[in-house]
Amino acid sequence: MIFGQVILFRRLTTAKRKLHLHQYRRIRHRVIKPRWSTSTAWNKDAGKSLRNPRLFLAYKIFMTNSFYNHTMQANIPSYVPQIQGFHSRADFSTLTNVFGPSPLVRKALPSLLKDPMNLYPMRNPVRLKEKIASWLTIDPSMITVGNGSDELIAIIPQVLLEPGDHCVVQTPTFFRIIESLHRMKGEVLTVPATDETNFVLGQRYIESVFAASKRTNARITWLCSPNNPTGETIELDHITWLSRRVPGLLVVDEAYQEFFDPKNNLSATRLVDKHDNIIVTKTFSKAFGLAGIRVGFAISSPHLIDALERWRLNFAISSLSLRIAEAALDDISFLQKVHERMDTERTFLFTNIDKLPQLKRGGHSKTNVFILKHTNGNLFDLLLKRGIVTADFNEMNGLEHLGFVRITVKTRSENEILLQALRKTANGHKKF
Ligand SMILES: Cc1ncc(COP(=O)(O)O)c(C=O)c1O
């Protein structure tokens, strides 16, 4: 018995040594600190014995849960709280549609609130699927719905990746894509679109993505168009070309598609009928202006959709959210208005920014986000000093140390506030 405890204790301390000290401290705070009320005596020497319940819990977590260890050691960042306390008019980091949802959604709300709340939502939200299907002219069996497209981005690797499988991802892009592949122990190879080529995702870029997928026999190749953070798009012809050649699955994140293509004429959803290795993820969070309701969806061949559906949590989306998403689809012409307004505001910002010295845009955004840097200083800090919040991309995958911030295009009066601050940084700022 004592011998067994000694072995367990030695294994625990070895596991502890393997973790970096700061990771261990974090675990200590989270896991070991809570008080225990137990009949087992806790004394000064108890740390040396596994009769100590704290050590026993730590042992169980360290030694038996390989995904816990993996999460602590892999490249999965801790949650970082957003900067709080700024007036939302000065927050340009949000990624959302500042014009909000269709007025018809607000109008429908009182009647939606009459739905019974004591019942569970539909496990299979048929009505919403049918509406999406008729909007995109596809079959409802080719649709699954998630708690935001974030849920689907997390589930795709869970269902379709084996630990150690190779995956190819563009950079810079939405960090959750790489994170979800890392979570499932995928071997991620990134294909950078660079500052030198102005982040263009053209034919040459797609050929390098193909070369990387072929070389690694990638199980998943993942693209994002329009891309977060650059707003660059990939032509449908290039996606078609790639889908015919990649050795495995091709996932296309189209969270921002409707800002630039409200009718989805240029969307990869046009390909899913003929190419059964494509998954397209989309969302109500962006152009529909409904990030708060957390509804996203994926379009693919029925057999892949079936696999994703089996894995999903039951009732992951509230009935109210499902009904709001349905109401949004009753006013599809709203997307055209969002597209036009966003184009006007983006052009207004770009025309004015391009007149300012020392500021350089990255890429040619066609959506509601773009990246910008100061050629002579740290733009994130310079704007923050003037009360403007942007998303700092200086440490982000594929944009390291380039000094870019990501900016969300907002309403005219808000864009004027941003321009005023940018003028001050461009004119008044000397190198520091
Ligand atoms: C490219 C991209 N895809 C997906 C998402 C996730 O959006 P949601 O979970 O709100 O659908 C985001 C959110 O910012 C994003 O930028």
Structure description:
With 432 residues, the chain is of the alpha/beta class. The chain is built from 16 helices and 11 strands. The strands form 2 sheets. A 7-stranded mixed beta sheet has the order 1-7-6-5-4-2-3, sandwiched between helices. The longest helix has 21 residues, at 333-353. The chain starts with a helix and ends with a helix. Bound molecules: pyridoxal-5'-phosphate (PLP). Pyridoxal-5'-phosphate is lined by residues 95, 148-150, 174, 224, 228, 253, 255, 283, 285, 291, 296. Pyridoxal-5'-phosphate (PLP) is lined by residues 95, 148-150, 174, 224, 228, 253, 255, 283, 285, 291, 296.
Fold blueprint:
Blueprint: H1 2-18, H2 21-32, H3 53-64, H4 66-73, H5 103-112, H6 126-136, E1 143-146, H7 148-160, E2 166-171, H8 175-183, E3 187-192, H9 203-216, E4 220-224, H10 236-245, E5 249-253, H11 257-260, E6 278-283, E7 296-299, H12 302-311, H13 319-329, H14 333-353, E8 359-362, E9 369-374, H15 379-385, E10 391-392, E11 405-408, H16 412-428
Parallel strand pairs: 2-3, 2-4, 4-5, 5-6
Antiparallel strand pairs: 1-7, 6-7, 8-9, 9-11, 10-11
Strand content: 5-15%
Radius of gyration (CA) equals 24 Å
Structural class: alpha/beta
Q: What order do the strands of the largest sheet run in, or round the barrel if closed?
A: 1-7-6-5-4-2-3
Low-confidence stretches: 6-47
Average pLDDT: 86
List keywords for this structure.
432 residues; alpha/beta; 4-stranded antiparallel sheet; 12% strand; globular; binds pyridoxal-5'-phosphate
